[in-house]
Amino acid sequence: MMSRKTSLFTLIKELLSYDDERFLECAYYTILGRKPDRGGMCTYMKRIREGVSKKNIILILAKSPEGKSSGVSAFALEMTLIALMIMNWPVLGSLLKMLWRQIPTATIPDFFDPIWYLQEYPDVAKAHMAPYYHYVNYGMNEGRCPAFDSDWYLSEYPDVVGSGYKPRDHYNKYGRAQRRYPWFGADWYSRENPDVAASGMDAIAHYVQVGRKERRQPAYCAHNDYRKWVAMFDTLSSEMRTAMHERSRRFTLKPLISILMPVRDINVVRLKETLNSITTQIYERWELCVDQEMNSDNLTRCILERHALEDRRVKINFCKPSGCMAAAKNRALELATGDWIAVLEPDYLLAESALYWIVDAINRVPNICMIYSDEDKINDSGIRSKPYFKCDWNLDLFYSHDMFSSTGVYLSHLVKKASGFRGDLDGSENYDLALRCIELINQNQVHHISRVLYHCRTNAENALTPDTVRYSRELTGIRSLNEHFMRLGVKAKAEAAPHGYRVRYSLPSQLPLVSLIIPTRNGLSLLRKCVESITERTDYKPFEILIVDNGSNDPEALLYLKSVSSMQGIRVIRDNRAFNYSALNNAAVKLARGTIVGLINNDVEVINPDWLSEMVSIALRPEVAAVGARLWYPDGTLQHGGIILGRGAAWHAHRNVAKGDPGYMARATLVQSFSAVTGACLIVRKAVYEELGGLNEADLQVTFNDVDFCIRSLKAGYLNIWTPYAELYHHESATRGSDDAPAKQVRARRELNYMQTRWAREFIYDPAYSPNLTNESEDFSLAWPPRSEKVAV
Fold first, then answer.
1. What is the distance between the alpha carbons of residues 629 and 724, in angstroms, rounded to a whole number?
2. In sequence order, which residues have a C-beta less than 8 Å from that of residue 388 and are 6 or more positions away?
3. Prediction pTM value
4. What are the E-state strand segments in 484-535?
5. Nearest-angstrom CA–CA distance, 234 and 610
6. Reduced to 3 states, what is the DSSP secondary structure of residue 208?
7. Residue range 41-91, pLDDT digits in tens
8. Contact 711/704 with Cβ under 8 angstroms?
9. Where are the beta strands (DSSP E) in 489-617?
10. Dihedral, CA atoms, 162, 165, 171, 174, nearest 10 degrees?
């Protein structure tokens, strides 16, 4: 970073080069550290027109109380300005002019917008740096956005077109908070994704055809700067390394970990790096069990034999070519004598601390039988990217995609009891093994380590895996799931989905009656749309609708309620108590005739006909309590993708992502369990609802009653499942309104305080989320810092 004196010279020279209005705006950001206000701009523009120089304006701002508190030195600025005045002196001035000429002239190109840059990157303004100088010397290399790109924004986010906002206004009002990208950084994209150059495609073309589907970042994003995150939070210092070595020697349990690694055709450089990642482990009680086909090149064999000679912990089995990966792993398994089994694919690298954290978990958590961790990608230059920060064990998410096998570690006797790897499921042999192992243990015996312990190679060869191979893996994965359900006696069938698998649970031959409860007060247009969408678009039968009229007084609404009350399958219940959402639903559930009840807001609208079939099929599972739907705002952005607990409250996962965006690791498209789902569309068995005591009508009359209900269901041993295959529109709070009135604010604060007190522990850590992901927004971006335990030194 440049010196303070050079920084001020550069800042002043660049500020003075701007026209009056741009000068003032930039001065506000770089000197006061904030966005200019209209009153201040008018005042200072008037003074400039009256003849006050820009240099004096800089001093006025710097000497103001706000300027002094911002950290900028008025004295240093004044000295710099005096130096500018001295330049007019004959001798000393010529020397200063030579220094001044060394400061680059701020000729701002058309593509650069300094106001945008300072607004978008507050760290630049906070450092009191000239925006264009920062961009040229730092920002360009980091991939920062030099100006807002309206054309890109409209093409990337089609919902903006119909929003009524200009692209820049939409970004300022919504997009920035939603973490949308204001431009496409072609150079950054190519640099971060080496496979783009290998593909021969233009960067933007690659993003449109490939990157967007894979949810790659189109441009640099400060809050998702994973390289910086790794440097700050996932790089061991020498003190950490020493402390971990010492602690590993003091572990009470020091199990031997057998690492299985089948070796086929592999780049020898990468093989050496993989072997080195094993031999340099902090925890040293391991053995490497290698199975190598004898048709591999001689150099590969020599490398392996040398490692075996140098380290007795390396065992090698040379075999005839079989072409079956499962058979190779079974042969490696025969070499294993360890207490635990880890499977390491040849394209993976172990983090230096991987085995340390595995053994740490074995010592800390009793009775665990299976362990998995987070993972990321690594290229041939050692640059890490695309982390998958996983949640704790989530059976339904595991059924939707294999979140375990690539980083799985098993108790040795469990693998042997499950009879090892199946050769007839080659390609999904790891997934199948995990499925068979979880059948033999309790779900709480699967443990997650929220640290990146494995790095998967990312390169052009991996990216170009033939479609036939992918299809074969997909088929064997589906077969693994279906055979798993058959062994368990679960009537379900797996099928392929765009980002994994979809499991359809069978409905009984005698379909249960579902009672859909819709509290309302007036709001005729919304209620009519809600009821008609249910009656006309729902293919599940039988169901009944209970409309709870909470004091409607609009004549047209009353007339509508009277008319629908005579319709078959619809009942209108008059309940004139003061609005208490929990009490209204509790009273209606008592009157419900169905064995399944649905809490339905009057401002939702059905999209897909099988929404109720999907939700009921999941709700009938004995281990499930609440089932939630995927709810969309009318503009096509996501409103509800499950509820996550954190930051002392509860928030909607992936809120505001556009249709077609699969979300973080496709979690916006996969069936999974969450700590809670929204009561705007919630299906539950009536017996479970009554067992849990219904909604809390005493303490949570309006807000958080659904979250509280779901947390209580977790405590009772149930799961809460969110499915993306039940889709409805949601005009959120359209009839209740927002909590902006003073009385409503008091009530909302009281209910929040109740939740923060009653569920204080649950609001700190959510097992359906990761401590490495932020609690500050709903987009699954990185946490700065992560909330995981630090290494004691």
1. 6
2. 374, 375, 376, 403, 665
3. 0.86
4. 492-497, 500-505, 514-520
5. 45
6. helix
7. 999 999 999 999 988 888 888 888 888 887 777 677 777 666 656 666 665
8. no
9. 492-497, 500-505, 514-520, 543-549, 570-574, 596-600, 604-606
10. -80
